Amino acid sequence: MEGDKKGITSEELKQHNKAGDLWISIQGKVYDVSKWANEHPGGDVALMNMAGLDATDAFIAYHPGTAWKYLDKLFTGYYLTDFKLSETSKDYRRLASEFAKLGLFEKKGHITMYALTSIVLMFCAVLYGVLCCQSVWAHFGSAVVLGFLWIQSAYIGHDSGHYQTFLLLFSKRRFPDRALNILGILIFWTWFPLLVSCIPNWPERVMFVLTSFAVTAIQHVQFCLNHFAADVYTGLPEGNDWFEKQTSGTLDISCSSWMDWFYGGLQFQLEHHLFPRMPRSQLRRVSPLVQDLCKKHNLSYRSLSFWEANVWTIRKLRNVALQARDLANPVPKNMLWEAVNTHG
User: Fold this and answer.
1) Judging by beta carbons within 10 Å of its beta carbon (0-12, 13-18, 19+), is residue 297 exposed, middle or buried?
2) Is residue 113 helix, strand or coil?
3) Is the Cβ–Cβ distance between 99 and 275 less than 8 Å?
4) How far is the C-alpha of 336 from the C-alpha of 116, rounded, in Å?
5) What is d(CA 41, CA 128) in angstroms, rounded to the nearest whole number?
6) Rounded to an integer, what distance in angstroms lies between the CA atom of residue 192 and that of residue 172?
7) CB within 8 A of 5, min separation 6: which ones?
8) What is the pLDDT of residues 16-66, one digit of tens each?
9) Contact between 54 and 24 (Cβ < 8 Å)
10) What is the pairing mode between strands 252-253 and 17-18?
């Protein structure tokens, strides 16, 4: 090392991989995040998964440029001496930098306004259908609309969920606007039962609740298709294969642009995993560039129709079930053992 720089090898870094002794490296500099883990806005699990490893790509993916200044107080004075940056990571970081220069992480367009407007209009339609109509079909239609309302609300909640709003809600850690968030939950479990009680009889009430939940379940199916049909890996990540891990563990759902409202833009799940801070409205725009990068490095880019993804998912679940049933397989090869002892 030149000058007064102190060096540390990747193997030495790996020794600091547990709670209370947790080091990571970012762009060649080594940081001690042992104490910071409990204060980390994303929780300590994310740091534990990268303990003793290079976390540059993950840091770039999840943090804005303003976060870099907070690293200085965690710097150990050591530099990683033998870290080799893969060509894939180089291209990923270059692409992330280009997107930042274009302002794609800040350009949300009008997606929030459109989503909130559609939610208000659907809520008004639901209230009208329940309170002002006596027809069972009107109540059924209102339940369907309410399901779509919840889907759109979930997309907004998903965006805020990247800041772990609800995981933190009942924790002992300091959390901004905790009372308001708890109040929001209480308000929901007040107005929804009241709305259901306005329906004239119990059969229709049960129909209303089940229908609204069933429509909302479509969104859960979508997210399962994005993840369950893809590959999985056991053990902790290697640190320098961020891009590769996302391409192997995620797939997209192909559809026309007019379906972006229904899917919330998250049918581009691979792009979302690679650039989680990017507004959903920009994911279709960057998709061709991600495809080119995957092609360049001979990585899989899977974009399936909704029905194809269902077939893939069912086939994958069947294969996993058959492996889990075979208890004769030794640990850790048995899938049931891996599911119970998952790493994160």
Assistant:
1) middle
2) helix
3) yes
4) 42
5) 41
6) 29
7) 79
8) 999 899 999 999 999 999 998 888 877 788 888 889 999 999 999 999 888
9) yes
10) unpaired
